[in-house]
Write a structure and sequence with these properties.
This protein is α+β, with helices and mostly antiparallel strands. The chain contains two helices and five strands, in the order H-E-E-E-E-E-H. A five-stranded antiparallel β-sheet has the order 1-2-3-4-5. It is globular.
Amino acid sequence: MNSFDLNDLPTLKEFSIIAYKWLSENYPKFDGQLNMDATVELSFPIRWKTKMEGEVFEWVVSDMGSITLRLGGLEGNRRNPSPIFYLSLLKTEGVGFQWADPEGNSVSFPDPSILEEVKSRVQLYLDSVS
């Protein structure tokens, strides 16, 4: 695994924009939030609330290549709510940039398998609080 340098910042931002576009298509905004116009300059971190299984969650996409799903209701207003789902970009020798889970395992993203993973994590959270 290699560390990022200043030359990587535009690439990280590009990956983050791709992630945001894919996630916002699959997890649309709700509660009167306007969807971004394609011509509007994105400002990071990009945040939006979505509803899954009747609960409110918030997606946060940073320009440094991280994606976080966390609680979006009153619980989400705590200073640092625990992530329910998290991915970040890693830079590896020969491969370049790749998405990884918190343990550093490579993850195919964007990929339909992510939808099942997020659903599973959300259900796990909901089961833990009921």
